[in-house]
Design brief:
- The protein has 335 residues and is an alpha+beta fold.
- The protein has 2 domains: 253 residues, Sandwich (Jelly Rolls), CATH 2.60.120; 69 residues, no CATH class.
- Helices cover 26% and strands 25% of the residues.
- The protein contains 10 helices and 15 strands.
- The protein has a 9-stranded mixed β-sheet with strand order 2-3-13-10-15-8-7-4-6. The chain has a 6-stranded mixed β-sheet with strand order 1-12-11-14-9-5, with no helix packed on it.
- Strand 2, helix 1 and strand 3 form a beta-alpha-beta unit.
- Helix 3 runs antiparallel to helix 4.
- The radius of gyration is 22 Å and the shape is globular.
- InterPro entries: Cupin_8 (IPR041667), JmjC_dom (IPR003347).
């Protein structure tokens, strides 16, 4: 049995408390955006939802992923992981919306998915018409996700994420970050949408091939959202997403709680794979201790023996130091 995600009710989207936005565990915010005009349109019908979206469409082409009916809506790799089971097609958003309406009554339509499309670029004005107060957050990005029935493999995102379902229903299955080993993650540098994904088919898990997935399920949390509900997904929590209806729209807001000059730790991981992983075991242990000392468990004693003006990168890093470091790293990498 999965545990349900903790629920909160009666919250005001224009006055979300810091303890919600800063939560380190998922929170299901029932009815948070139920009063949005987009949600009201979607509750009337998919056609009304499409008409509402078209009011803001600036006629720019979007990237749609299209998978054949036999994919079962699962956007994934091909059999040998050398490619993918879908095609990318560029088309005007209005055409994609029309196609979704045309195929909504088909028993076995192709899976269509417009993912992570920047809201203000493609639908300017929609965010202002559906307000939420996140102004105090750093590094904000609003995106829209549109499609029919789909299954998006478990993955994790670096930013915190407030996912607002505005049309259709979605099921999220979430796992704590420490379930990495049990989710059987695929290639880091070749994946369907930029984030490494679990290779387990959640509808038909092959426990002979992926036996540790059973342990991951013991830690899973599940939330089913209807139009008007929102889900707070903390940074780096694994999440598998299923869109359950013939027409689905989600608007999400990403943010990071660190300064913009801090780069993604994924770059560090990639460099570590290149420079540390294949060292002899004893040398790897030396670097493990080095990272523990300087990165994961620094304390006052780490640099107290160095005069403060001379501590350089061992002092708190600011934007100027980060810029100098980035330039130095680029110079070394491009040698």
């Amino acid at each position: 049995m999965h545990d349900p995600v903790e629920e909160r009710h009666g919250l005001d989207p224009l006055a979300l408390p810091d303890e919600v936005l800063g939560s380190t565990k998922p929170l299901l915010l029932r009815g948070l955006v139920a009063d949005w005009p987009m949600v009201h349109a979607a509750r009337r019908s998919a056609a009304d939802a499409v008409d509402y979206l078209r009011r803001f469409d600036r006629n720019a082409p979007v990237m749609a992923l299209v998978a054949p009916p036999e994919s079962g809506g699962r956007f994934f790799y091909n059999d040998d992981l050398s490619g993918f089971n879908f095609q990318r097609q560029q088309a005007p958003l209005a055409a994609v919306l029309g196609k979704l309406l045309d195929t909504a009554e088909q028993p076995d339509p192709p899976a269509i998915y417009v993912g992570s499309t920047t809201l203000d670029t493609y639908l300017p004005g929609l965010r202002e018409d559906n307000p939420i107060d996140l102004d105090r957050l750093e590094q904000k990005l609003a995106s829209i996700w549109i499609g029919n029935r789909s299954r998006i493999a478990a993955h994790q995102d670096l930013p915190d994420n407030l996912a607002c379902v505005v049309a259709g229903r979605r099921r999220f299955t979430l796992f704590p970050p420490d379930q990495l080993r049990n989710l059987y993650i695929g290639p880091l540098d070749f994946n369907p949408a930029g984030q490494a994904i679990s290779l387990v088919d959640f509808h038909h898990p092959d426990l002979d091939r992926f036996p540790r997935f059973e342990e991951a399920l013991a830690h899973a949390q599940v939330a089913e959202l209807e139009a008007g509900d929102a889900l707070l997904i903390p940074s780096m929590w694994w999440h598998h997403i299923e869109a359950l209806d013939a027409f689905n729209v989600l608007i999400n807001f990403w943010w990071r709680s660190v300064p913009a000059y801090m780069d993604t730790p994924m770059n560090t991981l990639m460099l570590a794979l290149m420079t540390i992983r294949d060292l002899p075991p004893e040398q790897r242990r030396i670097w493990q201790e080095t990272f523990r000392h300087y990165v994961f468990e620094p304390d006052d004693a780490t640099a107290e023996h160095i005069p403060e003006p001379a501590r350089r990168v061992l002092a708190p890093i600011d934007e100027n130091v980060a810029r100098e470091l980035r330039a130095r790293l680029l110079q070394r990498l491009n040698r």
